[in-house]
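User: Sequence in, structure out. Go.
Assistant: Echoing your sequence, followed by the C-alpha cells.
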Amino acid sequence: MTADTVWAAGGVVWRLVEGKLRILLIHRTKYRDITLPKGKVDPGETLPETAAREIHEETGIKVSLGAPVGVSRYHLPSKREKVVHYWAAEATETAIRTSSFVPNREIAALEWRSPKKALKLLSYPVDIDIVERFLALREGDPPRTFPVVVLRHGKALAREDWDGKDTDRPLTVRGKRQATALVGQLQAFGVRQVLSSPAVRCVKTIAPFAAAAGRKVELCRNISEDAWDEGSADVRRVIGERVRSRKPVVLVSHRPVLPTILSEVVLATGTLPGMLAKTPPLEPAGYSVLHVSADAPGSGLLSIETFTPAL
C-alpha cells in the first residue's frame, strides 16, 4: 500500500427474501447519497478485516466475506486516489435479526432493493460497476460460497539452528506475531473448521485464531511434511471431505505440500487447472482463499485470492 493512496474496503451485502435476491443500500446523511457499505483501512488492518468491520459498523450486520467482486478507483477532491476493494457478503437471517443499526449522523437509512432497482438508485457509476460484477459471479444467482483457506505456517526457526526433531521446530518471534495477526483475517472469512499438520510450527500458527474463535485444532497427518516426504500423504481424501462438508475451513501446512493441496481443491471443485497459474507461492504466514460454491461445489471455483503477511 502506498502513502499517497487512500485504501478502503466494503461489500455487496445480500440476502434472499421469499427466494428473491435483495441488495443492501445505505443512505449517507452527510453526502445525501445512496451507496454501498465501505470505509477506510485502520492502521494495522488488512483489507478483508476492514471490509467486515465497516459493513458491521455501518449496517449493524455481522457478515463473513464471500468472493471478491472487484475494485473501484477514483480521485478525491484532494486529488489523492481512493482504492476500494469489495467482497460479496451474505446477510443471514440471524445477523439481520440481531442487527444493532439505528439511524445516525453517518447513515440515515438502510434499504433492501432488487438488483434492478439497486442499479438505478446508486449514486455513483463505480458502485454500479461493482454491483454488476457481483451479479456476474453466478449470472444473477446468489453467490453463496464457502472458503477453503490454505495457509503456510508462520516464520519458524531455521533447521540449522534447531537441534531437536524437525516437527518440534518452533516459531520465531516474528512467526508468533504473524500468528496473532491472522486472527482477524480468518475471522473476516468466517472460518469455522481448523485442520493442521501436527508439526509445532503449524499448530502454533493457527492456535491464536482457534482460541479466539472457540474452535478445536484438528491434527491431520495427511497434510504434514513427514507424510509428504514418505509418500503416504492422502491429500485428495482430506480435500474431498472438506469440499463435501461445505464448511469454511483453514488447512495449515508446509511449503512442499501446499501446491498439492491447492491442486486437489481445483480438482475436487471441477475447476480448470489454469486458474492456479496466477496464484503466487505462499510466504510464511501467507494464505490463499479459494471460494467454492455452496450450492454446486463441483461447478468450479468462483475465485482464488492470495494474501501476503505484512509482518
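User: And one key feature?
Assistant: The mean pLDDT is 95.
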